[in-house]
Amino acid sequence: MKKLTKSSIVALVAAASLTVSTATVFAAGQTVRVNGASSVALLLDKCKSQYATTTGDTASGYTAAGSGTGKNNIAQGIVDIGLSDSENTNANKPAGMLHIPFGAWPVTVMYNLNTTKSVNLSTETIAKIFAGQITKWNDPAIVADNNKSYRVPVYKISNGQTVLDKNGAPVVLRYKTVRTYFTFPDKKIIVVYRQGGSGTSNNFTTALNKLHPTIWTKSGNDAFATAFPGDITKDPIGFQGGTNAAQVAQIAQKTKYSITYNEYSFAPDYGLGVANVINPAGNAISPASTEGILAAFSVAKYTADGLVAFDYTNKIASQYPFAATTYALVLPKYSSAALAGSVKDWINFHSFECPKVALNSGFAQITKTSDLGKQILAQLAKVGS
After folding, report:
1. Beta pairing partners, 158
2. Mean pLDDT of all residues belonging to the chain
3. What are phi and psi of 34, to 5 degrees?
4. Is the model's pLDDT at 41 over the cut of 80?
5. What is the CATH number of the domain that holds 92?
6. Does the pLDDT value for residue 13 go beyond 60?
7. What Cα–Cα distance (Å) separates residue 163 from each residue in 130, 167, 301, 367?
8. Which of these, 33, 187, 292, 344, is most buried using a 10 Å CB contact count?
């Protein structure tokens, strides 16, 4: 993190006397209607009390119905903010609708084995498992991933915080070498996937297609079955679906030898193991390390309308390959200045403050000086009445 000089402190004080920051001054007294993506449900629940205390606003009871619902409900005026883990390309989306990428998190590969010890899986192995090409836990590819040495980054820490470079990527101090040994059972792998419209599925299948297009031959899609490179109905035992993130986690919890993809905090809550992912640089990156997420965002591209395009094949040493964002889908104009202010406050709080409250939730702490933070603030400036 960059140190403040005496001159920069003076400049900040002078600027503060001329402007009001929505990070510290909130437009209180509004009820903000929000629903959509289930990936952020646990995060929002952990921050609910602090959000009300900090902003003076309340949020309607969050319904984690999926990204598809967030997209539809913002179009129908049912909510003030629709949440989606993927771009809203629906024909009925509101004119001028904004995408504000307020959450940074890992799509986590988790499993139900006899241990919660982390296994290592390369992106190629993951692609083959979810494509149905690897069907047994003791497949040679899985065994090979877990009986070798890997480099694991050790990050530079200052005052208890990870030091970031000018692009918002964590500074790697050194690497430690970790040797893994793991014996896998001769058991069929049960893949648990999201049914219906899921931004988590979109993020995951898009990454698989970009990383290994000859294995995952179809483009990413909100519907896992649509993106699946084959006919998923041919193996109803090996592929089982759940309607939202919580149900997917519940099915995996009850199904021995299952594997799934989900938002990180569902793993500890449901007693599932978490895979370290071998990234394109050949390093083992844990989704529990938010530094890997920040590294992915540091090499991402940002469009003028708020969208994030990840560089999945970039060989930056610390990148976690399955990074994702949750978009707040908002209108450029609201019915009143008070409501517009509260919408901005909701996004501001959950972008920059909530991850500090919900520690170990799997969501990265976004700084306002990072490329992602600047993107959030730039899009927020477009919201009015």
Report:
1. 161
2. 89
3. -140, 135
4. yes
5. 3.40.190.10
6. no
7. 35, 11, 22, 12
8. 292
